[in-house]
Amino acid sequence: MTKYQPYIMRSLISLLLLFSFIFIYPVNVESTTAGKNVSKKELVLVKDYTKNFFIDMKYATCNNFTGKTLYPSPTCVLTKGTLDKLIKANNLVMKQGYKIKIWDAYRPLSVQKIMCDATPDKKYVANPYGTGSKHNRGAAVDVTLVDSNGKELKMPTGFDNFTEKASP
């Protein structure tokens, strides 16, 4: 065990606790049923509120499980309430020399459908024909941690891992 592992573990625990609030706290959305996305006026650009995240929107590249570019641009948006909580989490990990790297945020329902259709094991991708995903409401983010040089920390899984290791 390296001298940094206890700090990394505390960072991860802090991050997980704050994310539990993100997913439990109700989000003001137009509708939470499939076929309806969050109202555009409720979404905010992350870069307009902070420059303290590393942003690597994986679905704006072909470096994802579909092998296709799913977003026309790497624009990162969330609801303001979700972003506020993510900023708090990032402030905690920054005190320990790390930053949050955002891989995905708000996701249109049309992209959720593509992802669901491309996934053989549906337990890892929300059903767009049911309640959809919290991503479709701007209330979920896919993240990792990076060090001060922007290098990703070793985690139990990488991005787009559809195994038990990535299961809640």
Automatic annotation (TrEMBL):
Keyword Metal-binding belongs to the record: yes
Keyword list, A-Z: Cell wall biogenesis/degradation, Dipeptidase, Hydrolase, Metal-binding, Metalloprotease, Protease, Zinc
Database matches in InterPro entries: A_A_dipeptidase (IPR000755), Zn_M74/Hedgehog-like (IPR009045)
MF terms (GO), sorted A to Z: D-Ala-D-Ala dipeptidase activity; metal ion binding; metallopeptidase activity
Biological processes per GO annotation: cell wall organization; proteolysis
Catalytic activity, as annotated: D-alanyl-D-alanine + H2O = 2 D-alanine
Pfam family, one: Peptidase_M15
This protein's name: Peptidase M15
Organism, as annotated: Ruminiclostridium papyrosolvens C7
